[in-house]
């Protein structure tokens, strides 16, 4: 990001969204990192190990859903600076099992800006192969972002 954009209102909102993601208690179970890469885009990285496996020895579908939903959600929430969004539906496609390594989910806003937003995400493995994809619908809630303890606008 160019230095002149680093302190813009949008960039400060994006850093606050990253802080909000990091503060979520569920991310103690799913240790992952969110990066907002621009308006309407996000990236989440997660390392798969045997602690994520189902009984047949590959990553459980909850990993796919969590990563894809979060990536799409945060891509959409880059466009909404006053309210927390809620996932109202999410369509998920599994394309390949994952046994270990780093997964990256990349989210992208597709449409909508007022009450309902649509975003998609794809999940790739270390070889760059797609292992899953999904599309979600997100609705503005009545929850102000500014009232959430993890949503912290950086200062300085």
Read across the widest sheet, the strand sequence of neighbours is 1-2-4-5-6-3
User: How confident is the prediction overall: mean pLDDT?
Assistant: 93
Tally of separate helices: 2
- As a percent range, the share of strand residues is 35-45%
Q: Can you put this structure into words, describing what you see?
A:
The protein is 21% helix and 40% strand. The protein is an alpha+beta fold. The protein has a single domain (9-147), classed as Roll (Thiol Ester Dehydrase, Chain A). The chain has a six-stranded antiparallel sheet with strand order 1-2-4-5-6-3. The chain is globular, with a radius of gyration of 15 Å. The two termini are 17 Å apart.
Topology:
Elements: H1 9-23, E1 32-38, E2 41-48, H2 61-77, E3 83-94, E4 101-111, E5 116-124, E6 130-144
Antiparallel strand pairs: 1-2, 2-4, 3-6, 4-5, 5-6
List keywords for this structure.
alpha+beta; Thiol Ester Dehydrase, Chain A; globular; six-stranded antiparallel β-sheet; 156 residues; 6 strands; 21% helix
């Amino acid at each position: 990001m160019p230095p002149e954009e680093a302190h813009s209102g949008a960039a400060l909102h994006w850093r606050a969204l990253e802080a909000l993601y990091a503060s979520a208690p569920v991310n103690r179970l799913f240790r992952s990192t969110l990066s907002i890469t621009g308006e309407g885009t996000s990236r989440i990285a997660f390392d798969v190990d045997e602690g994520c496996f189902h009984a047949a020895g590959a990553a459980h579908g909850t990993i796919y859903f969590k990563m894809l939903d979060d990536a799409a959600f945060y891509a959409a929430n880059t466009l909404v600076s006053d309210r927390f969004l809620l996932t109202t539906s999410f369509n998920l496609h599994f394309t390949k099992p994952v046994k270990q390594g780093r997964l990256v989910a990349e989210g992208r806003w597709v449409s909508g800006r007022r009450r309902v937003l649509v975003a998609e995400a794809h999940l790739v493995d270390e070889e760059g192969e797609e292992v899953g994809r999904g599309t979600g619908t997100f609705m503005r809630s009545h929850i102000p972002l500014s009232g959430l303890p993890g949503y912290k606008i950086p200062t300085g």
